[in-house]
Amino acid sequence: TTTYYAHAGKTCPSDDIPVIATITGVCEEEISVYPNPSSGLSVFIESDEFTSGEAELIVTNTSGQIMKKEILSISSIGRSNEIRIDDLNFGIYFVNVFQNDNMFVTKLVKL
Question: Predicted confidence band at 51 (pLDDT cuts at 50, 70, 90)?
Answer without folding.
Answer: confident
